[in-house]
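2024-03-11 09:14:02 INFO queue: dequeued item site-specific DNA-methyltransferase (adenine-specific), len=114
2024-03-11 09:14:02 INFO validating residues
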Amino acid sequence: YNLDGFFNVGWGKYKSPYFPEEEIRAFRQKSHACVFMTAGFERTLRLAGDGDVVYCDPPYEPMPGTAGFTNYASGGFSWDSQVALAESCVAAHQRGAKVFISNSTAPRVIELYE
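2024-03-11 09:14:37 INFO prediction written
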């Protein structure tokens, strides 16, 4: 979503668009035991525990010497937010959750997760 709260992916101009109906139906069948929620990462990760699987895809930390873009929401996603996410993920893991996180290979990100 963009700063105005709207979905920010264009429709495209496909001559013959593919609608993945079978894949959507398969996902529906397999996702019955899943919980999808819209909440900040701190609240969401506080609920994660034994048997849960969590995937975090925060705005990637810019590489040194680049401007990067982290303003997906008002206030952006600061380094303090990156650290808080890492701490919340460690706590969820200690409660038994399996946690996966994607991010850049910026040196301080590597250091944060070592």
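2024-03-11 09:14:37 INFO annotate: The beta strands are 53-56, 98-101.
2024-03-11 09:14:38 INFO item closed
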